[in-house]
Amino acid sequence: LTTEFNKEKLEELFNESVNLILQAQLGSGGILTTVSEERLHYVYPRHHLLATLGLIYAGRFEEAKKALEFAFHGQNKRTGALPQRWDRNGNDASYRKVEVDCAALFLYTFAEYVTKSADYEFAEHYWERIEKAVDFINSKIVPGKNLVLTPNSIHEYAPIDYGYEIWCNALCCAAFRELSSIAEKIRLQYAPLDKENLVKEAIMSYMWNSRIKSFIKTIKVEDAVGVILGPDASVLALSFFNVFNDSDERIKSTVAFLEENLRYKELDGLQDYPEQYGREYTGLGASPFFTLLLADHYVCLGDRTNAEKYLRWVLSVATEKKLPKYVATKEDFEALVSDLNDAGLLDRDTMRLIENTRKHADYANGIAHILEPYVPAHAMFAVVWSRFKEKFKEEK
Hints:
- It is a single chain.
- By secondary structure, the protein is of the alpha+beta class.
- The protein contains 15 helices and eleven strands.
- The strands form four sheets. A five-stranded antiparallel sheet has the order 3-4-5-8-9. The protein has a two-stranded antiparallel ribbon with strand order 1-2.
- The protein is globular.
- GO terms for molecular function: hydrolase activity, hydrolyzing O-glycosyl compounds.
């Protein structure tokens, strides 16, 4: 999959991405994972907040504010956490444990909104609720280790997400950092925000692996004990959320490790994690979302050649100005369907996903678009393309 670097087409994809996020936003402010004919019943905090981040970078502050207000409405007043999922009106509809990275992403997105829109009144109005969310995160930092323990994270696949996990810990650092600068602006102090350096130092101490010269995915301590080295694309949270500078040698070495080991050989692009013994059931092929995190690393580094290379790839996947959660060969996709079928795992939702994949125009070309449009991928594109234009001072 290759295509030329075309600014007009990338700008069109940016506009379509913003439109899709707005289409996925409900009257209540909640943002769904995809736009489809089917009535989707749930709003997932992680996807909702990533979509909100896309709106912020697109300058759609009014809609972003509405999305944040939806999250405040759906925040647990007692614990300060966000539930694992909401119904369409923002009521708790969880069936799994609370995921700590969602609370951190909430704080980070809130801080990005306040900083970029200069809406400091909004920060003052909700500050007590922000403190509750900070307290919740701090309650999950394990003393002595100084890392956050989470039952699940970005992959929504506990076997590799449950433990001291990199995406979650990176986000907690970034949230504390960004909130500290807002606290200064509105002349408030909140001591628990000082935990940023504590967690950051623990990431350096325990989550850098000197043998493979890469940051690792997870330290398992509860359901099993061990180290999940990766390669895992969620480690890119360290660069995307600027926990470490993109020019840091450890980040460069980590990126090299990912590029070498996670390239989807059939179609290029970055896999989220390798084909391995067991994985989240739809996880197959290359991930536009994580490939965009890689593009972002090169944007921040000022390496235009590599940034363009990955943006070209994303453009080549967006055959109908839509981005899927995964793009894979038809052959790989049908092998997965066969395995799920043999194991008796084809429920109605999975069947619908399979049908939609087979109906896509690109399927005739041997390419499977799995879960399209995927709103978090469009949100990440909005962020990365905005950063690209800013970094290389493209005309708007």
